[in-house]
Amino acid sequence: MSECQYYEFQALDRPLSREEQEQLRAISTRARITATSFTNAYNWGDLSGNPRRMVERCFDAHLYVTNWGTHRLMLRLPRQTLTLPMVKPYCLDHHVDAWATRTHLLLDFTSEDEGGDWVEGADDSLAALIGVRDELSTGDQRPLYLAWLSALAAWELEDDKEDEYQSWPEPPVPAGLGELTASQRALADFLRVDADLLAAAAQASPSAPKEQARPTKKELAPLIAAVPEKEKDTLLLRLVLGPEPQLRTELLHRLRGTTAPAAVAGLRSAAHLLDAAHALRTERRRRAEHERAADRTQHLTALAREAESAWQRIETHIATKKTAAYDQAVTLLAELRDAYAHTGRDTDFHQRLTRLREDYQHRPGLIHRLDRHSLR
């Protein structure tokens, strides 16, 4: 099986210059390059450039998917929208990394699963994930926490890490972990966040605040008037020198106060969360097993009530003398056996089965199937 890799880069805050596009063309002659994107798929070769350097210099988002189970998302945000000290508590080994350049903060989220499947429609994945960049820029830390949970689950599988995660502290817990946005749900899926681990984490997460209505001129006018003149001059200068796509969002939050879900101090250890997830998983499986048993009991009870009709269907299947019909007859007989046993009528079933075997003893195909399913 050949190796499959998909690379996608997106420039969101400003288009690429002609010179930058020519530099990218030197990295790959086959890639599709536009003023806002770089995409390429490889079946035998690989990208000659360094994705981190490409994001640092040109792009605001990068997606990487392989058929050996690697899922990677990199994001670049202006430094004024998110700080490195805010992000560092969520970093864990190579799975969640962050660093800063002079102008930007960069995030690198990676999930590895050798048994994972290729992402069908990988070229649409970044579009579903890109919304988390805007959410991060407004102070929403839920994407960071989701990436940390993904890393924690991977960390648990490494035998030499057990002593570390017994005492490793939980990072700040954002509000709204139980109410993820569409982009955050896509991120959780992409990073393979364990549903039970997320549910355990959400137990300590406050509810997300309600979204504020679209600001009106009447609301904003007095707020703008109250901004100090020196700060207004700085904002106007930034606007003129632009482009800063996040400037409007930053100003709105400056005027109205942040609406991003607040984070509370993480009080649990990594081991506590993993144990809580295990307890939830065990209970969920117990409930599912109980429900399956209840459904099975209901099915067998109903089948026992309609036993005569079932015997008639069995005779009809056998009468066709077709192998597929024999299989259907034997499957129904096995179900009838369980139904009779469920209602305490095993003897009745075996008497009917004995007569059936005698009636069709010259049908070797049927008898073979009965024997194979222990219907004697």
* CA radius of gyration: 30 Å
Overall mean confidence score, pLDDT: 88
Strand count, sense and barrel status of the largest sheet are: 7 strands, antiparallel
Strand order of the largest sheet: 2-3-1-4-5-7-6
Q: What does the overall shape look like?
A: elongated
> Could you give the distance between the termini?
47 Å
| Number of E strands | 9
Unreliable stretches covering 5 or more consecutive residues: none
* Tally of helical segments: 17
Q: What's the helix-strand series?
A: EHEEHEEHEEHHHHEHHHHHEHHHHH
What structural category arises from helix and sheet content? Answer: alpha+beta
| Strand residues, percent | 5-15%
Q: Which bin fits the share of residues in helices?
A: 40-55%
Give a structural overview:
By secondary structure, this protein is α+β, with helices and mostly antiparallel strands. 52% of the residues lie in helices and 12% in strands. It has 17 helices and nine strands. The protein has helices at residues 18-27, 51-57, 84-87, 125-129, 131-137, 142-156, 162-167, 182-190, 195-202, 217-225, 229-241, 247-256, 270-305, 307-319, 323-342, 346-359, 364-372, and strands spanning 5-10, 32-33, 37-42, 61-66, 70-78, 96-100, 104-112, 173-174, 263-264. It has a seven-stranded antiparallel sheet, sandwiched between helices. A hairpin with a 3-residue loop joins strand 4 (61-66) and strand 5 (70-78). Helix 15 (323-342) packs antiparallel against helix 16. The longest helix is centred in the last third of the chain and has 36 residues, at 270-305. The protein is elongated, with a radius of gyration of 30 Å. The mean pLDDT is 88.
